[in-house]
Amino acid sequence: MLALCLLCYSSTTYGRRLKDSYHMLISSREASASQSSSFHGMNAKEKEIFALINNYRQQYGLPTLQASANLAYVAHTHAVDVVKNSPAVNGGNAHSWSNKGNWKPVIYTPDHRQAQLMWSKPSEISNYKYYGFEIAYGFGDYRDRGRTVDPVQSVNAWKNSPAHKDVIIQRGAFQNMPMKAMGVGIYKGFACVWFGQYLDTFPPPE
């Protein structure tokens, strides 16, 4: 069974709320930094997802994204939390965060009531100072010890899902929200990708 989940909903109303909330948190001034070619500790499969997403973006004339140590840390932390702690309870989906870590728990429901708690996870648990946006993929019983993520299958699934595709190639609610940074995290059969609008100029998490 393929499990796909997306942080953001692409309706006009929700897109407007997303952008308004985002700009309440950060200024409109872009952080200046040179693009890094480092993968910041991402393993081979995480690097492959990173490269596949950037290659796909280039097909649409979009710039490649910077590898972010902080967003990769958030992605890996969330993948581990989903697999180990099963936070998708009480109507929440796999974008939820459990109450078993050094973060505010999130029950992420279809009405996006706790969206800002989710978007702010990078600034809450890493040194990245801005909101982040997540797409996630789980293959079958992703908690099973023998499960693993297939990077090509993961990216193809996101490409074939309009809502996920919107995040990757900046359509819909993300049309005027150009992404600059990306981090990938995999644990067992679950993969998370976090995107950020600003380059990661901050020290990596310790």
TrEMBL record:
Residues 51-173 form the SCP domain. It comes from the Eukaryota. This is SCP domain-containing protein. SUPFAM superfamilies: PR-1-like. InterPro entries: CAP_dom, CAP_sf. Gene3D superfamilies: CAP.
